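Course assignment 3, question 2. Fill in each field.
Student: A.L.
Task: Predict the tertiary structure for the chain below.
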Amino acid sequence: MAWYEILGSFLGVLVLLMALGVPVVFAFFATNLGAAYLFMGGDKGVEQLVRNAAESVQSFALMPIPLFIFMGEVMFHTGVAGKAIDAVDRLISRLPGRLSLVAITGGTIFAALSGSTIANTAMLCSTLLPEMSKRGYHTSVSIGPIVGVGGLAMLIPPSALAVLLGSVARIPIGELLIASIVPALILAALMFAYVIVRCSLQPHLAPPYDARALTRRERLLPFAKYVLPLMSIFVVVVGSIIGGIATPTESAALGAVAAVVAAAAYRRLTWANFAVSVRATLRLTVMTLFIICGSITFSQILAFTQASDGLSMLITGAGLSPLMVLLGMLAILLFLGCFMDQVSMMMITAPLFMPVVQQLGFDLVWFGVLMLMLLEIGLATPPFGMLLFVAKGAAPQVSMREIIVSVAPFIALALVVVALLIAAPELALFLPRLMAA
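Answer field:
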């Protein structure tokens, strides 16, 4: 069989299994085993596949994944992050769309502590959405900012998905984690500015209300007590990587220990929520390792059958400019984001895209950040964006159409950041280069 026939049949079976409701991981394993048996020498091919799968999860570089997940679970289940949101609420006053700005600021802070997009969105929905509804906030400035900022946890360290992408796509994990920070902060700043401008032009979207006058001490003390100590965890994790003091694994361990110490210091840590955090970490870690096994073996089969080389040669030999090829790959990710979850997108596209990226000479870290941006956008794109359903669950009285309309401007802002990254790659690369200096 020609490489394109192998690739077409491989992807066809995979999509068919997922359409039948087979979990993504098991769909990949079933397809991989069948392809290994057919194209890699029968039983010997399957045995080799099993050995490769076992070796793929023995890498020390994967250790940040459970540690980052544990760090976020502790912050979520102990409720420490909720105190930080309240402190931000006290600090921000007399600005148009105050509660929306609290959502963006608090969501950015929690993203730097959790690494979980769903946890980030769910926490903001549960803590802020009821108050926004009570104050008469329009969905465009209540649900929109919450869903928009929820995806930042995929970009800002500690991001388990960034570690997963680095492992699957063979991108240096430390550099990828650091490179995502500036684009995420630019996106948060754009969302912040958008809410202020829109609420200034249309005050009825976020009706002002008289809040109890607070002294400077009452506004600043909770921020100093609940936000600054938690942000020091982020500084420890990121600063140790940038400064070359610690590897990503060591910095993740520091962050996990710091999260437990912080929860204990605030007297929010109990054996019950600690056990829940550990169980959630184990469950997510096992799922992630299975995903890595499936993706690595997928890549190996594509390499063995020369499908990845054939696709790379076909694209690079088509006479398209590198920019057109890049835009084509990003368009595929944007399209898939409407129908697939982020892990499925990553597992399917990374083994196909990375040979092309290397052939065209693109910076791997820069492309990894672009890929993370598109994966983050996919969380909010209809009809199956995961965060849309999280918001729907938190606000069942709001129609899905209203939710989608409210989120659309924030998707547009994320696409603006993608365009900025394409036009100015240094926005993503100057921190990793600083780290290497």
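Instructor remarks: The mean pLDDT is 83. Residues 334 and 374 are 6 Å apart (CA to CA).
Grade: pending
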